[in-house]
Amino acid sequence: MNICILSTDQEKDDHRLLEAARAKGHTAELYNIRDISMVLDTDKPTICWRDKDITKTFDAIIPRLNVNFTDYGTNVLQQFICGRTYVSESPAALRLGRDKLKCLQYLLARGLPFPATGIAYTPHGFRQLAKVIGMPMIIKLIESTEGTGIFLVNSLKEMDNIVRTFSQLGASYIIQRFVAEAAGTDIRAFVVGGKVVASMCRRSQDGDFRSNVALGGCSEPYKLTAAEEQMVLSATASIGINVSGVDFVRSNQGPLLLEINVSPDFTGEQGIEKITGINIADAIIDFAVSQVHGFYEQRFSSARVLESPRGILCADG
C-alpha cells in the first residue's frame, strides 16, 4: 500500500510512523504540509508536492497537523477527499478537536463530565461568569496546546488583567473551574480507531498546576477503569476523531474530561510509547490500512458525501 504521512513539525513522531509503515512492507512518504499546493478545477483537481503531481499517487493519507496548520491542512485533506483518496481523519473532526469550546459543546450534548466552563463576548461578561465558576479558575486559550496559553488565577483582579489582555490581542479564550484536588496530575489515554491502546498518568515535578510532559512533567503507566475507558471512547466518538490523546483528571466527583488532543505526540523519554511500551506507531498504521480496502470497495463508506441536484460536490471524510 502507498501511504503519505502529512507532517508539520512533529518530526520524531512522524518518522516513527514512516518507519512503522515501511517495516510492514508498505511504500510510505513523509511530506511537509508547507510543500503542498493545490489547484481547484472541476475537470482536473490537482495536488502537488513541490513540483510533483501527487493527486492520484497514494492509497491513504495520514495527517499529522500542528495547531498552526489546522486551516490549511484540513483544506489539503479535503482536496484529497474530493479526489477520492482515503484520509484517515475527518477534516471536520480535526477542526472540532482544535476548538476547545465547540468540542466541549459536543461532550455536553452526550452528557459527558467536564469542569464547569464559561465564555462571554466581553471582559465584563466574564466577571459575571466568575460568580458561577468560582475561584480559583483556569483561563485557557481556545487553541491552547501542550500546556501553553493556560493560566491559573486566584482573584477577579488577576482574571480581569488576563482577559483584557487576550481581548486586546483578539484571542479567543474560555474560563474553567479549577479542580484543586487534581492539581499537577492528569491522565492521558491514547485512542486509535475506537480503542484505548495505551494510557499513562502525568505529574508535575515543580509544583506547576499543569502536568504536561512538554512542560517538564513525568509519566507512569496507568490502567483505566471500565468507567474511565467508556468516558474516553464516548468523548472521541462525539467529535468523530480516530487518533487522539484524551486528557482527564480524577476529581472528588469522579473523572472529568479536560480536552481531546488531535495529532497527539507519542514519542520522547516521557512520551506514552516509551512509558507504556506500547507500539503506538504500529497501531496508527494498522488502523489506517484496515480502513482503506473498505473505503475503495464501497466508495466513501467512511465519508459523508455532500450532494446537490447537479451531483457530488465533495466528501467530508
TrEMBL record:
Coiled coil: none annotated. Pfam families: RimK (PF08443), Rimk_N (PF18030). The keyword Oxidoreductase does not apply. One of its GO terms (biological process) is SOS response. GO terms for cellular component: cytoplasm; ribosome. Keywords: ATP-binding, Ligase, Magnesium, Manganese, Metal-binding, Nucleotide-binding, Protein biosynthesis, Ribonucleoprotein, Ribosomal protein. One of its GO terms (molecular function) is ribosomal S6-glutamic acid ligase activity. InterPro entries: ATP-grasp, ATP-grasp_RimK-type, ATP_grasp_subdomain_1, Rimk_N, Rp_bS6_RimK/Lys_biosynth_LsyX. Signal peptide: none annotated. Residues 104-289 form the ATP-grasp domain. Its cofactor is Mn(2+); Mg(2+). NCBIfam families: rimK_fam. This is Ribosomal protein S6--L-glutamate ligase.
